[in-house]
Amino acid sequence: MKYARLTKEQFEELHKEFINFLASQTITATEWEALKSNKPELAELELDVFSDLVWEGVLGQAQYLEHISPQSIHLFALNEDRMHLIGIKVKNDIDVTTQEGFNWLRENLMDENIEFVQAHKEYTDDKNVDKFTLIEQGANITKGDLYLYMSKIIN
Questions:
Q1: What CA–CA distance (Å, rounded) separates 153 from 155?
Q2: What is the pLDDT of residues 70-88, one digit of tens each?
Q3: Residues 6+ apart with CB under 8 A from 6
Q4: Which residues, including other chains, have CB under 8 Å from residue 153's CB and lie 6 or more apart?
Q5: Residues 129-140: pLDDT tens digits?
Q6: Directed axis angle between helix 15-24 and helix 40-61, to 10°?
Q7: pLDDT value of residue 154
Q8: Strands ordered across the beta sheet of 140-142
Q9: Backbone angles phi, psi at 140, to 5 degrees
Q10: CA–CA separation, 25 and 15 (whole Å)
Q11: In this predicted structure, what is the pLDDT of residue 11?
Q12: What gap in Å lies between CA 10 and CA 95, rounded to an integer?
């Protein structure tokens, strides 16, 4: 397995897609039930393969990631050849994961307690694995609104 197995909730959301996936392998509903009962290791393998296919599609389309923690924000633009990072560090006790803290940050971007950094990172051999690693570390896929806003401010 290249990524991670989808959660039960994610499988439920993708129920129709999973049925189509099984059908593409000529596995009927009856055969799937038999597979789960008689050869659970093969059923597990099918779940893993489907999960990887879903992750490949999602990661291939992802253009922005955000990771927000109490004292820092990491905003990633997932460009074709490398990632661009805008990092924001809050050097006081403001928690930007709260609405109040985020509002303070937005209103005080030029405060001496705010530090901005920018960096580029080349992808390794598999950029989707690089993206997935950031997601495993707590990043979320976004539309990039915050990245684009901060990019305008600091550039």
A1: 6
A2: 999 999 999 999 999 999 9
A3: 14, 47, 50, 51, 54
A4: 109
A5: 999 999 999 999
A6: 110
A7: 85
A8: 114-122, 82-90, 72-78, 64-69, 140-142
A9: -120, 145
A10: 16
A11: 92
A12: 30
